[in-house]
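Exercise 3.2. Students should predict the tertiary structure of the chain below and write it as structure tokens, then compare their answer with the key that follows.

Predict this chain's 3D structure.
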Amino acid sequence: MALQLQPYRYHPLSSSAQTRILVLEPSSDVFAPLSCMLEELRIESDKGFQALSYTWGEPNFTGTLIVNRTHFLRITPNLRDALHRFRLPFNSRRLWVDAVCINQQDEEEKGRQIPFMDVIYRGASAVLVWLGNYPAQAACLASIEAYLRLLGKKREPSSSERHQADTELLTSLSSLFQLPWFSRRWIVQEVVLNPDVLMCCCDKELSWVRMASRLESISDPPAGFKPLESMLAMTRLWKRGLFNRNAVEKTGIFDLLEAFDHFQCCDDRDRLFALGGLANDVHMGPNAPSQLLPLPVDYTISTESLYTRFCADIIEHADKEMKHQMLASGLARCRNSQNESSLPSWVPDWRVSAIRKPFFQYKDTKLLDLEYKSNSLLLRGPLTQDATARVSEVFESLPTHALSPQEVTCWLRAAGTLWLSKYPKDGLEPYSDFVQTCAEDIGQRFHRCEIIRMISWVMSTNHFDLLGIDDHVSALTEMGNVFKGRSVFYYRSDFIRNPAFGFGPDNIQVGDALLGVIPPNWRIDSLPAVFVLRDFPHHSSRLVGDAKIVRSLERHGGDWYSPRSGICRGVVFADEWYSPPTTKYIN
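Answer key:
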């Protein structure tokens, strides 16, 4: 009579164990039920295991895993397929699998084990990546291996051969990157922390060593191909860790959030936890060293509470550079819908990818102090705001999706037409300088003559005949990265006779206020920040984003404007050259 299996119930780990290990029992019958023993694991003394990297998939727990011969666990179909794929015919296999080795129903246990995941993936003898049962992508994996062999046989492939190989490879990679695994946030640490990573799809295999080699050999990676950029970032992290075990840790949490912001996870709290183990400036476990910011793993609080608490800790305990990184991360994600969110407007909503590149930079860390008080952000520094300086008109924004050169051309032409309507006497050269200044603020470098040529072409071509666009594709692509998620706006003030020109966030509205930062050694062309604010009850404001504006003042009855010096990175609303330190509350 067959023994009736009972649902498996987890027991608390003993004080000396950090996690559990799944011992997968062998079978030469591919259709045999999956069976395992579940044992405790002491990571420091036990290195004889492999770690699994996979995606959970839809939460349909239709697979069955027999545990300790008397109990069973329900698992997802993708995990079931992975265990079938990696089961050995004659020997048991010791695997660390998060869905089984962590009691997923125990939030406190999850909070204790998550900080050890970097130790687990470092300590594993190998990492087995299961991409899934996808025959078309398995063929792509085989194609990548074939390209490596083909090029390896030739000492000096011709340029045409390399171009053809790169084109075919990019086609295969584009198909491969569509698999769910390549957009999962946890894979970053699962791959970069171990020197021996094997990727498997159906019955095809490819080592990460060979994948990394082929990724780095692409002679001209296409701009804006975010999955490829992220895989190259993972490759660099992996290589640094391979040659220097501590080098991977020389990356801050905001560097990681920027590089992998489009990677997803089932639980939005994991947007921080999945990357925290790689960061050199946070500590996820108990007893954080004084030089590191604590990021306690707590699944008992909401996502909004986690993000707010983390940012409050940054403001209260981190250095100024990290505070400014946090502010820049929030500026990149400000959106109208956040007004209905329970998040304060200054807290970055990492549930969404960056919408735009912030103009705000934190090169001068002494310029702006950030303080936290009663769920509000306090900006302290040489701030200036004129209550009459308000956005008066808003025009069409540049979308946030991947932009074609044609879209960027049309938008820059429309913006240039609006510029000329404000400053007709000065021509297009100051507009080119303003565009170049915006690009420099987000880290793009152009020769002035290159920008002037591009803007001259943009303003001379027509909407239906873009003859000559091939000469400017690279610059237009970069400009798309500079201005996506941006709008042209005009603003008015009692101190200027006519509305002035600016680039702001795409969620800017008529009536929004502008807040500028003025360094003590203020010069016309060196102001570092303009914040766009929306009035809020009780004498506070909500953060809408940041802007780049043209400063135009009236002095002694005459217009003050210079094609070169009239472009600045900030705004002065008071008719004076220096503003003393002030405070602004942002909710």
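Discussion points: Residues 135-153 form the longest helix (19 residues). Residues 402-477 form one domain.
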